[in-house]
Specification:
Layout: H1 16-59, E1 62-68, E2 73-75, E3 85-93, E4 99-105, E5 115-120, H2 133-186
Antiparallel strand pairs: 1-3, 1-5, 2-3, 3-4
Helix pairs in contact: 1-2
Length: about 200
């Protein structure tokens, strides 16, 4: 068999294709380790960056008491797929002595005259709450998982393509060798061999 390459101390029956398969499997194992490292690095970077951004936003967000001045209504979320929220008109002061009125999110059971907590920016306008640790952690975990998955999928696909290529070459080599050996082994004449040929 022409595909065999004997090595010192190696198995003489181990073909070049077998060694290539072994290298591809080892490559995938290394890729798995690299994927984990990529996932951790991406997740940690996302955690750090989102944490810094949340700290900056938190410095400019203030929780103030507001008093509802009207009945509650329902409002669809700002983006498709967001849940409906309960809102009501309310009055609040921020900075101290500066009155504001606006529609704010309230609990579903809020009534006119109830006190609710709202988040406002430095100018007293209604703003979103600063991001919490759980939200930041979930986003960082998600990004890390995406990096891990993409790295594994790409490396797995490349290794699979490599293995299929090796298998196809190996099959062609076996067929070519069998065509040489089969007539002798079975005693059948080849098409180009005459009855008197040896």
């Amino acid at each position: 068999m022409h595909d065999r390459t004997p090595e010192r101390g190696g198995n003489p029956l181990r073909r070049k294709a077998d060694r290539t398969r072994g290298r591809l499997h080892a490559t995938f194992a290394v890729a798995c380790v690299i994927a984990v490292i990529c996932g951790v690095v991406v997740g940690r970077t996302a955690w750090t960056e989102a944490g810094r951004a949340a700290e900056v936003v938190a410095r400019h967000r203030h929780s103030v008491a507001a008093v509802t001045v009207g009945e509650t209504t329902y409002r669809a979320g700002d983006r498709p797929g967001q849940r409906t929220i309960t809102v009501a008109p309310a009055d609040w002061q921020y900075p101290t002595g500066r009155a504001h009125t606006g529609t704010v999110p309230v609990p579903a059971n809020a009534r006119k005259g109830d006190s609710v907590r709202v988040w406002v920016d430095d100018h007293g306008s209604v703003a979103s709450a600063p991001r919490g640790t759980a939200e930041i952690a979930l986003e960082a975990f998600g990004l890390g998982a995406v990096a891990l998955t993409v790295t594994l999928l790409v490396s797995g696909l490349l290794v699979r393509i490599g293995l299929r290529t090796v298998d196809a070459r190996s099959a062609r080599a076996w067929e070519a060798e069998w065509e040489e050996v089969e007539p002798v082994w079975t005693g059948r004449l080849r098409p180009d061999q005459g009855a008197d040929d040896d």
